[in-house]
Amino acid sequence: MREHCSQPSVILGSASPRRRELLQLLGIDFDTRVAGIDEREDGDSSPLELVCRLSRDKGMAVSAQVESRIVISSDTIVVLDGQVLGKPADAEDARTMLRALRDRDHQVISAFTIIDQISGAELTDYVDTQVTMRNYTEEEIGAYIETGDPMDKAGAYAIQHPGFHPVSWIHGCYASVMGFPLCHLFRHLSHHNRIEMRHPVAPCEEFTGYHCTFYQQALSGAGGE
């Protein structure tokens, strides 16, 4: 059944508390819906094709539930040596992923989709961030797994975890590694005059504690992202 409602005009198609927190930084009034799609890999798609497809599939599933809204959806994957690391199946799977990532570079790709049901406009974009993990110990891995935090995270880690601090360096968008590239999202949403937003840089830096040197490129669209 499709729902019709004039306010708020934005629907976030995600169950992720991190994406809700990040979108709130833009000061947008929004509701949430869960897409409930099959997120398994199909075996034929590249990592980029996969993350963009999942983001759009989530948006389309939520768009079928509502009317006259702007639907925002997203998906994030971790890619190591060309292989996608999804959410761990269990603690040992998380341990295997964290060992594989330790002291190495990998990619975090976040795709997002915006569907404007009024104008019919639809867009999917992505941000590819290069991430280097620090050389954490086996004891640190074990302690982190015991917190339960890795179990719902792609690649079995959260960049923002206050105890583990797994990342030593990034080139790109910190918020994208968390799951939502705010400056890129802000740039695209600014074309929709029905949405009132605050500028993302200051609230994002305050929320993440990370001083961003990437935002001007993100807001201008330089580099094709």
What this model shows, in words?
- There is one protein chain.
- With 225 residues, this protein is α/β, with parallel strands linked by helices.
- It has a single domain, classed as Alpha-Beta Complex (Maf protein).
- 32% of the residues lie in helices and 24% in strands.
- It has eight helices and nine strands.
- Strands 2, 3, 5, 6, 7, 8 and 9 form a seven-stranded mixed beta sheet that branches. It has a two-stranded parallel ribbon with strand order 1-4.
- It starts with a strand and ends in a 5-residue tail after the last helix.
- The model has no long low-confidence stretch (mean pLDDT 92).
Features:
225 residues, 7-stranded mixed sheet, two-stranded parallel sheet, 24% strand
Shape: globular
- What is the C-level CATH assignment? Alpha Beta
CATH structural architecture: Alpha-Beta Complex
Task: Give the proportion of residues in helices.
Answer: 25-40%
Class by helix and strand content?
A: alpha/beta
What is the CATH third-level topology name? Answer: Maf protein
Tally of discrete structural domains: 1
Q: What is the CA–CA distance across the termini?
A: 36 Å
Beta-strand portion reads 15-25%
Give a count of the beta strands, DSSP E runs of length 2 or more.
9
- Element-by-element helix/strand order: EEHEHEEEHEEHEHHHH
The number of helical segments is 8
Unreliably modeled segments: none
Give Rg in angstroms: 17 Å
Largest sheet: 7 strands, mixed
Summed over residues and divided by their number, the pLDDT gives a mean of: 92
